[in-house]
Design brief:
The protein is built from 13 helices and 32 strands. The longest helix has 21 residues, at 566-586. A hairpin with a 3-residue loop joins strand 7 (199-208) and strand 8 (212-221). The chain starts with 11 loop residues before the first strand and ends with a helix. With 604 residues, the chain is an alpha+beta fold.
């Protein structure tokens, strides 16, 4: 690749595609790669940028990907750098990193489904980053497409001009050529002096078994060349650039990357722990460029315990988690032990889908059989001494007498629903202790409801329940608002008087009786009978709120006493009773893995 002069910077365009889940981002990216000739017919496949096996299976994007395309118009060659982003609310963090590297965004909306909850959230995020937004209506080839109404919805909710909406079909390729022209005309060229001191942003990284850590960068100022010594400012480490290049969509090496370009670096870094996402790369020496404002650290919202179902797999699970954490900075883990499940890890995730994806990747890529405890959120507790601490697991909640203030995370939920389903959705949100904050009409037949709901009520199954009560038409998006005080308590499950730590949960005091009874009932049916009776109790602090008893196995000791004196029978029964009492005092209750799984997978 020839070295770039500052003139050719005018011919670079950096943009990303943002949309609600399933609105066709990855398919549109495929059409753009084909239209610009970046991939030939041999390399063609669907969802070319979704290269994780799980992305292909589920048909969703999990990791953001970058690709450079060449587009010729009027004899001038333009370099279009596309960053494909996930659409699901759990991967919002990947989207925010992509927005920081672009000057423009294609805002994609389905011509049938119209503006959805995540569309609104992503559009506002792009506006906060001062990106130029190109509105695009996709799937115009559908028989039920309603592009004019959707253009009006976009104007009502996002303030876009209906005449500026580009109409395309990512499936058939219709309108893609016009869209490429719109990208060149509307998205501004990057700024930044190619002759200034090097300043580049690290927006992603992954690990190659043969080459080590591969760092994805966007050059803000200056030029980075092969063989140059560079410094990671936050990590404080210095490395030689062994190879650099761009993705097209596989790695294509080149000699230099100038201000405005997006590409990758290979520096023989052995561990991904040395590459921090959001770090700034500059020259080695005494006068590096100032560090760029990085990204906010992703806030883990959901925690759960992961344990190998066979205790022998502990070290394999640790290695697998380390490999995953290297590629996914929004996931964290720390070792923990449980009396019931043995050695395992407490893991933090951005949301429930993120948790599910990590669990599936562990099972598929590392072939480990996992037991997962009930998911819970992070609470904030102020004790009587005035100290505030974050609680990630129910076992750490202090006794009720020591708690001054118990706060739970609250999220603002935007639910977009057809008007005929507004009643059931409002009822559902109120059942989850939601407080209505707004009601906005988007078009002829759709409305957006805004509620503040405790995150613990959202993560279990709110998304599924909204889908089922709106026949699949409702969409949910949420963002963290803050912490609010609530009447919460720790619900413990006791078996034979011993607390089972893996089954403790934090819940609202009004729900505790119902949940305690449900778990006790479930455990009673799952625990195998012993030679002595086993008490299963649910308790808040020292107060027992529910109890079920697993009856003892009995032998009919009086069977051989036929006829004769009743006192002889009583004596034998008394003897048996004493024996069972002694057994209960020294006996251990074995709770099988199956019993745990039955309770944990039951969710509520």
């Amino acid at each position: 690749m020839a070295s770039k002069s500052s003139r050719s910077q005018e011919h670079i365009r950096n943009f990303c595609i943002i949309a609600h889940i399933d609105h066709g981002k990855s398919t549109l990216a495929d059409r753009l790669l084909e239209s610009t000739g970046t991939v030939d017919n041999r390399g063609k496949k669907t969802q070319m940028l979704d290269d994780l096996a799980l992305e292909q299976q589920r048909g969703i994007t999990i990791k953001a990907r970058a690709v450079a395309m060449r587009y010729k118009r009027d004899g001038v060659e333009y370099e279009l750098n596309l960053i494909d982003t996930p659409g699901h609310v759990d991967f919002q963090y990947e989207v925010s990193r992509s927005l920081a590297c672009c000057e423009g965004a294609l805002l994609l909306v389905d011509a049938f489904q119209g503006v959805e909850a995540q569309t609104v959230a992503n559009a506002f995020a792009a506006m906060e980053h001062d990106l130029t937004i190109v509105p695009v209506i996709n799937k115009i080839d559908l028989t039920h497409a309603r592009p004019d109404e959707v253009a009006e919805e976009m104007m009502n909710s996002l303030g876009t001009d209906p005449d500026e909406c580009k109409r395309v079909s990512a499936k058939t390729g219709e309108g893609v050529a016009t869209l490429l022209d719109a990208i060149v005309d509307s998205v501004p060229a990057p700024t930044g002096d190619p002759d200034a001191v090097l300043q580049a942003m690290v927006f992603d990284s992954n690990y190659d078994d043969f080459r080590g850590a591969i760092t994805y960068i966007r050059v803000m100022q200056g030029t980075v060349r092969k063989g140059q010594k560079i410094k990671f400012l936050r990590a404080g480490s210095t490395h030689d650039v062994v190879e650099l290049g761009q993705f097209a969509p596989s790695r294509v090496p080149c000699d230099e990357l100038v201000a405005g370009q997006v590409g990758y670096l290979i520096c023989n870094i052995k561990s991904l722990g040395d590459v921090h996402i959001g770090d700034t790369i500059s020259i080695a020496g005494n006068d590096p460029a100032p560090a760029l404002p990085g990204y906010d650290r992703p806030k883990r919202m959901v925690y759960c315990g992961l344990f190998p179902s066979d205790g022998q797999d502990f070290s394999e699970l640790r290695d697998a988690l380390e490999r995953l954490a290297v590629n996914d900075p929004s996931f964290e883990f720390e070792p923990e032990t449980s009396d019931a499940l043995g050695f395992g890890f407490r893991c933090g995730f951005l949301g429930l889908l993120h948790m599910e994806i990590v669990q599936q990747r562990l099972e598929q890529e590392s072939d480990i059989d996992l037991v997962q405890t009930a998911p819970n959120v992070t609470y904030e507790i102020t004790d009587k001494r005035g100290e505030t601490k974050n609680i990630h697991k129910p076992q750490d909640v202090p006794d009720p007498g020591d708690i001054e203030k118990f706060c739970q995370p609250i999220v603002r939920c935007n639910v977009i629903v057809p008007e005929e389903y507004i009643g059931p959705v409002m009822k559902l949100c109120q059942e989850r202790r939601g407080i209505q904050k707004g009601h906005e009409v988007l078009g002829a037949s759709r409305a957006m409801l805004t509620y503040d709901i405790p995150l613990a009520e959202v993560i279990y199954d709110l998304h599924d329940r909204i889908k089922s009560c709106t026949r699949g038409y409702g969409t949910l998006d949420y963002e963290m608002v803050g912490y609010e005080e609530a009447d919460l308590c720790r619900l413990d499950i006791l078996v034979n008087g011993n607390r089972v730590d893996a089954l403790s949960v934090v819940c609202h005091r009004a729900d505790a009786d119902r949940r305690g009874r449900a778990v006790a009932k479930k455990l009673k049916s799952e625990i195998e009978r012993h030679m002595f009776e086993v008490a299963v109790q649910a308790a808040i602090g020292s107060r027992v709120i529910a109890r079920e008893t697993v009856p003892a196995m009995r032998k009919n000791v009086t069977a051989k006493c036929y006829g004769g004196d009743i006192t002889r029978k009583r004596k034998l029964l008394q003897k048996q009773k004493e024996g069972k009492k002694r057994m209960k005092a020294v006996g251990n209750v074995e709770i099988s893995q199956k019993a745990f799984m039955a309770v944990l997978t039951d969710g509520e």
